[in-house]
Amino acid sequence: MTTTTTADPSDLLDLAGLFTETELELRNRVRAFVEDRIRPNIADWYENAVFPAEIVPEMGAQGLLGMHLSGYGCPGRSAVEYGLAALELEAGDSGLRTFVSVQGSLAMSAIHKFGSEEQKSSYLPGMAAGEIIGCFGLTEPTAGSDPGSMATTATRNADGTWTLNGAKRWIGLASIAEIAVIWAATEDGIRGFLVPTDTEGFTATPIAQKLSMRASIQCDITLDEVALPADAILPEAKGLKGPFSCLNEARYGIMWGAMGAARDSFEVALNYAQNRLQFDKPLTAYQITQEKLVNMALEIQKGTLLAIQTGRLKDAGTLDPVQISVGKLNNCREAIQICRDARAMLGGNGITLEYSPLRHANNLESVRTYEGTDEVHTLILGRHITGQQAFR
Q: Using CA atoms, how far apart are residues 66 and 127, in angstroms rounded to an integer?
């Protein structure tokens, strides 16, 4: 007996029914943007390691930059709306969703949360429009999961100005950014600084020969006697709580985005299996294939439910950062397995860029690592459950 599948076979529980008309309108608009501007081009961008900077103003026009921020030309959308946009963007490619995250959840959030009125007015409207690109410099060559040990320093001079020295690594967008948010150790603890990237002594070098996130830009940054005025400091950011609050904004988007990569891989595998004949019948007629598809769909449903609940808590103002770790850890872990299983279902064809699952799986190796590795989020949750600190 054959049955007719639904329009969205991965949505077994009608999760779309949990969204408002406004949320669904935004989801559909972003999905159409991905279909029109990203999906037809992503294989070439990925193969040639090209970040399509020309679509940045288009993303601004779509209201995708700094979505969750209000005022200063920012869209002021809800957390759930931002999550839906992240999901649809990553169904296109993690690198493009990562751009939106670096620009909005990291660089713009840092300025919005901790900047002076002058800093906010100077940068946020242009960043929201995609006219100014920002980056966020926290990770260092020897300080990834332990940013408290950062070696980059900012020294206050006698006249109140600052001098920065140090290095950062894996900094998204740095080579095309106009403004960098740089975190540095001072005599008063970790502080954030706004550094125009054309400042003498600031050098950003793209990291080449990547096997992941190829349609994106990550850089090494060197800071060699970078001279900054006194008002370059973000006045309200003191200590690691500043950058961590921005990381939590990015982690929140990741839990949604990972489900986009998973859903796209599931859809590709399902379509392929429906049309691929082996031993005189389609692959979907075999029990093992159906088991694989069911397991994928179940994890997509669970991961999306997790993201929706987290988003509703965030919009209500009751979200605990520990809950973000639940979503980041679970959804990245499950998404990468779904993408790998989908690749396997495609056989040898799955290693080509004609199909998306292996590209998604490779990208998720980065997504799973940045903004906190599995191990870091496991220890965050372990500390919450047991009350015992196990980081050291």
A: 8
Q: Where in the chain is the domain with CATH 1.10.540.10?
A: 15-128
Instruction: Select 134-239's CATH number: 2.40.110.10, 3.40.50.970, 1.10.10.10, 2.40.37.10.
Output: 2.40.110.10
CB 1 within 8 A of CB 59: no
Type of residue at 161: T
Q: Which residues are catalytic?
A: 371
Per-residue tokens: 378: 């496991």
How confident is the model over 98-130, as pLDDT tens digits? 999 999 999 999 999 999 999 999 999 999 999
Residue range(s) occupied by CATH 2.40.110.10 in the chain: 134-239
Burial class (CB in 10 A: 0-12, 13-18, 19+), 241: exposed
* Beta-strand runs (E) in 200-355: 202-206, 218-228, 233-238, 277-278, 281-282
What are the pLDDT digits (tens) for 169-190?
999 999 999 999 999 999 999 9
The string of DSSP letters for 49-68 reads T---GGGHHHHHHTT-TTTT
Q: Are 315 and 25 in contact (CB under 8 A)?
A: no
pLDDT digits (tens, 9 = 90+) for 22-58: 999 999 999 999 999 999 999 999 999 999 999 999 9
pTM: 0.95
Q: Where are the beta strands (DSSP E) in 114-217?
A: 134-137, 153-156, 162-172, 179-186, 189-196, 202-206
Give the residue carrying structure tokens 């965030």.
314
Segment 258-286 shows an average pLDDT of 96
Query: What is the pLDDT, as a whole number, of residue 1?
Result: 37
Dihedral class, residue 201 (left if φ above 0, else alpha if ψ from -120 to 50, else beta): left
